[in-house]
Amino acid sequence: MFDLTGKNALITGSSKGIGKAIAIGMAQQGANVVISSRKEDVCQAVTDEINAMDIKGKAVCLPCNISEKPNLEKLVADTHEALGQIDILVCNAAVNPHYGPMSEIPDWAFEKVLQCNITSNHWLCQLVLPEMVERKGGSIIIVSSVGGYRGSTALGTYTISKAADLQLVRCLAHENGPHNINVNGIAPGLIKTDFARALWEDPKRAAAVEKTYPLRRLGEPEDIAGTAVLLASKGGSYITGQTLVVDGGGLA
Q1: Which domain holds residue 184?
Q2: HEC-encoded secondary structure of the chain
Q3: Which of 11, 80, 124, 184 would bridge 90 by S-S if both were Cys, CB 3.0 to 4.6 A apart?
Q4: pLDDT of 39-48, one tens digit each?
Q5: What is the tally of structural domains in the chain?
Q6: 170: in domain
Q7: pTM of the predicted structure, to 2 decimals
């Protein structure tokens, strides 16, 4: 039901954290995965790590800075050259250069968040969807956040971008459902990654958050991987236009 053998998955922001966990999870189910982030050395390290595992899928290293459209065009072209068709697209890469109230965020930071977290996802979907439409099949997963469902005094612009991703999922699902393409999102809660370190590295702050989660723990990157595999596989074939919250029950 969750077998991905023979599928090719392009996963942005996959050199660490949630993206890396998704890549490993999909490779364990047989998919060939593209490891992509800005730095080639860390991408290559994860690629080598996956290829050294006794699993069905293999990994290729294709570094990319998602902030510019020509870079994404090259990423898609390089994926085609390395693996062939793209069956699964996971838009996971995101940025958050400002921590604090929106009244203090500089223009460059505001624009960068919207560019990388919304526009780049839109571009990448535009680049990959035509081949999926032609084949009448494919799965797109956009990694959003529980922040997209609630306000914030310190992550306002980031949560705006993640709320926009929720609507991007809905619209793309409507447009592409008739072509047998599934488009879904994942909204993680507080996951112990480098990206979210400012939110959990203080033990007192982490403990306070844990108390609000019914499962009484913060998430690990591996907690997100199974949801991504579900949405990309036959087991999730009747799910589209949804963003699944994976947060230990915190939003509930």
Answers
A1: 8-246
A2: CCCCCCCEEEEECCCCHHHHHHHHHHHHCCCEEEEECCCHHHHHHHHHHHHCCCCCCCEEECCCCCCCHHHHHHHHHHHHHHHCCCCEEEECCCCCCCCCCHHHCCHHHHHHHHHHHHHHHHHHHHHHHHHHHHHCCEEEEEECCHHHHCCCCCCHHHHHHHHHHHHHHHHHHHHHHHHCEEEEEEEECCECCCCCHHHHCCHHHHHHHHHHCCCCCCECCHHHHHHHHHHHCHHHCCCCCCEEEECCCCCC
A3: 11
A4: 999 999 999 9
A5: 1
A6: yes
A7: 0.96
